[in-house]
Task: structure prediction
Amino acid sequence: MGAPKIALVGGGSFGWTPAVTANILRCPHLEGSQVALYDLDPHALDLTHALARRYGEQVGSRTIFARTTRSEEALDGADFVVVTISTGGLDAMQVDLEVPEKYGIFQTVGDTVGPGGLSRSLRNVPVFLELAGAMEKHCPNAWMLNCSNPLSALTRVVGKETSIRVVGLCHGVRGQVRTFARFFGLDLADCAYTNTGIDHCAWLTKLVVKGRPAVELLGGRGLEEWLRLPPDQAGADPVFGPLYTSRCGLFLSRQLGALPGIGDRHLVEFLPGFLDGEELVRQWGLKRTSVAERRQNRQKARARIEEQLKDPGELRLPEGSDDVAGWIGALDGGPPVEDNLNVANLGQIPQLPEGAVVETRGLLDATGFRPYASPMPKELEAIVRPHVLRQELTVEAALEGSFPKALAALSTDPLIRPDHARPLLEDLLAGTRQWLPQFKEY
Result:
């Protein structure tokens, strides 16, 4: 078997492409691969392509990096298609965040659920369907690795509507377990765990640290007392300060019997009572990421690439959070990988609908993916299952351009006041109309 062809859709990303290309270069199984960077922005592509080639030359790799603004050129003959795109970019995301604020909803991220997640789904689902359709024509046997949010909805539409094999990749759960490991002064390898849920709403039903349940260890260090502290004191606490970004999830864990498998910034968007007004956001010590910050971060990332390309010395290859290369290598016949998989529910979570995209641990190898059984307790099902049903409804609304289905999904979201749902949805659609050709009228 020869080295694979890998298409990076969204290859002009200043924040994502450098880490992914470095990840590919580090993977022995992928030595000599063809990597096609595809993006609609030729100027961004020029920079990321030049940097990738520089990385390759520095490590003496035979991997070939190409760039193109034509999707058919990138996809033709590809074995793997890795996707990180956001239709409308930060201009559209500004609408996703600012419109809900008029209705008292202060989202922390705004890219998965709630009004921001719904809006993002409506404009991205058709784009993913079109991309998967192009793959059926140009590379029908390729795997799609989706890294784009809302991960569940976008992965779902590909599996539901096309023949393309697809998996969703998110580093959130591993990152959360690593946070717990560091709190105990240990490494990720010292932790054993099982998790269940959906992307950005994941729960650790078991977390064992060096043979002892993490819940017992946390209680022994004074978790209850820490949870009663005000935010400023909690964040500065010498013992529990490192877990401050999981404080809301830890507060809930006492009632749910499971530790949070993701940080608060994502988790609270699935729950009522945390984002209803700026005062509550401050009360819980939550950090929001504004579009202005995102624009600034993008400019900084571009500036870093430009500086690196001017530097004649040896460059440090970045390390990303997602093991894209490891996944590709495993599916291509290299060393198997155990990780958290966002894939169609084949029964791994029997409490959730068949076919819906769910997140559990699993194995990737040359045969494909094999998710591990991860039954969901009723306490967690009460939170997660309604979101899965809304995800299905949202995908249908996006495909059909259905205002009633989008309204039903939004009206039942825990962040929404029922009387705000219709005007909020109308404002979101009006603000992002240029990216919603399927919504003719409403």
